């Protein structure tokens, strides 16, 4: 997918054997997990080495330094975001039901994910956005890709006539991502599930307000809200 305004930086690498690729992936996954749990600054190469159960020479074989490894972690987390949003249960994010299913899934992840470390991508962005221009562009491209996933689905809704003619797909897509990120940050900081729940619900309701034939009964709250 083409990013809107920022190019995803490619990381060309030598050809590795299947075993080498598996080892490299294991190192990146270990680094991603530790950086989510502890933060980038508090994650050392030695900690990654032990978590991945590899030797120091293997780390240096696959990655120039911690910065190089961190950029690969950003790649993995960007792909995690894409994979999450392209699950079959969300269709192509091209209907109100699909957007509601996305909001419900975010709410379901509050305890296992957002209260633990916030958003896996947003937490990296918050820590690394001022690191350097290349990492900044990596992160920005990830957000552009994320917004584009929603924009594409919303464009399909407009093309079908599901949304009013004045609905702007990108204008509606940006608040969905922004609501998720702001809500995730507040829920992580406070431990309160309400910010994320309220934010994603409001963002979907905003899209719903442009529906040509709004459903009777008004906006539907995500599952789990009644008991909180």
UniProtKB/TrEMBL annotation:
It comes from the Bacteria. Residues 44-63 bind DNA. Keywords: DNA-binding, Transcription, Transcription regulation. One of its GO terms (molecular function) is DNA binding. Gene3D superfamilies: Tetracycline Repressor, domain 2. SUPFAM superfamilies: Homeodomain-like, Tetracyclin repressor-like, C-terminal domain. Residues 21-81 form the HTH tetR-type domain. The keyword Transcription applies. InterPro entries: Homeodomain-like_sf, HTH_TetR, Tet_transcr_reg_TetR-rel_C_sf, TetR_C. Pfam families: TetR_C_13, TetR_N. PANTHER family: HTH-TYPE TRANSCRIPTIONAL REGULATOR LMRA, TRANSCRIPTIONAL REGULATORY PROTEIN. This is Bacterial regulatory s, tetR family protein. It comes from Mycobacterium intracellulare 1956. The lineage of its organism: Bacteria, Bacillati, Actinomycetota, Actinomycetes, Mycobacteriales.
